Structure formats: C-alpha cells, structure tokens
C-alpha cells in the first residue's frame, strides 16, 4: 500500500501474509502514515482511499474521525477515478519487465520496494493532476448517457402514443 501526493509519496507498505483487516489497516497505514500527513498538511488535508472492506470498517471510521481526517467520498466501483490505480499498473508493468523476474515472495517484496522508489515523481504528479479531468469526463459521460436514455424514452413514448 502506498500514498501519493503532488511532489511526494509515502514509502510502499507491504503487508505481512494474510488478509488485511480494518485493524491492520488502521495500525499499519493510518496511524503511522496518514495521521502524520494530516498533522503536516493541517486542516486542508483530504484523504482518499477506496471502498475496500478494511477501509470501511467502523474502527477505521472512528480513527479518522478522532484524528479529524476528512475522507473524500468515493463512489463504489470506480477504480478508474483513483489516481493510485494508475501507479499500481505502472508498478506491475515495471515488475513484469524485470529480468530475471522475482522468484519468491521475498524477491517480489524487494522488487516492489525498489520499483516504487524508482517511479518518477513527474508520473505521480501527472496522475494526481489528472483527477479533476477524469471526474469531469465521468460527469460528461453520465450526462450523455442520461440524454440518450431520455431521448430513447421520449421516442418510445411518442411512437407508442401516436402509432
């Protein structure tokens, strides 16, 4: 798990084996990283995660509220809007280009940590800067879909009423 911002990033956090729970997420990510960033950035800090089950656990909500960390509301099933998803793809491609490829879990962890640190900051800045454009595009697409459905509904109604 990693955090990104304009002109910065957190270290990549690789969880130990097993499932990530809300408690693990809080203890290994929110408390050591997010809380500190909130302190450094002040009241203007906005936190974005996704709708993964550990991120929505009650104890996570309570922690964020107790630390006065504002979460950006996030629509379900919208990974294409989250800038970090572009970096996970970038990271995956970097790992796939490695020769020789990682041969075990420890090798994969080492490769992930190395490749994460090698991602150019300009790439991170670009994906962060593109968020507004991607959100605007989604709104426009939704408006177009709504318009198409409305036109079809009206056409159907007119043909039904006047046939």
UniProtKB/TrEMBL annotation:
Pfam families, per the entry: DDE_3
GO molecular function (one): nucleic acid binding
Stretches assigned to the Tc1-like transposase DDE domain: 43-99
Stored InterPro entries: RNaseH_sf, Tc1-like_DDE_dom
Superkingdom as given in the UniProt entry: Eukaryota
Name of protein: Transposable element Tcb2 transposase
UniProt lineage: Eukaryota, Metazoa, Ecdysozoa, Arthropoda, Chelicerata
Gene from which the chain derives: X975_01251
């Amino acid at each position: 798990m990693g955090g990104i911002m304009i002109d910065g990033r957190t270290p990549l956090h690789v969880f130990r084996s097993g499932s990530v729970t809300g408690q693990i997420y809080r203890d290994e990510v929110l408390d050591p990283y997010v809380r500190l960033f909130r302190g450094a950035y002040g009241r203007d800090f906005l936190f974005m995660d996704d709708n993964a089950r550990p991120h929505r656990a009650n104890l996570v909500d309570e922690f964020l509220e107790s630390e006065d960390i504002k979460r950006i509301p996030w629509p379900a099933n919208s990974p294409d809007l989250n800038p970090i998803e572009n970096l996970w793809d970038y990271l995956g491609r970097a790992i796939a280009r490695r020769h020789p490829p990682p041969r075990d879990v420890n090798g994969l962890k080492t490769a992930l940590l190395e490749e994460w640190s090698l991602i150019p900051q300009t790439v991170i800045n670009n994906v962060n800067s593109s968020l507004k454009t991607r959100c605007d595009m989604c709104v426009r697409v939704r408006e177009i879909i709504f318009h198409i459905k409305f036109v079809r509904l009206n056409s159907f109604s007119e043909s039904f009423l006047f046939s």
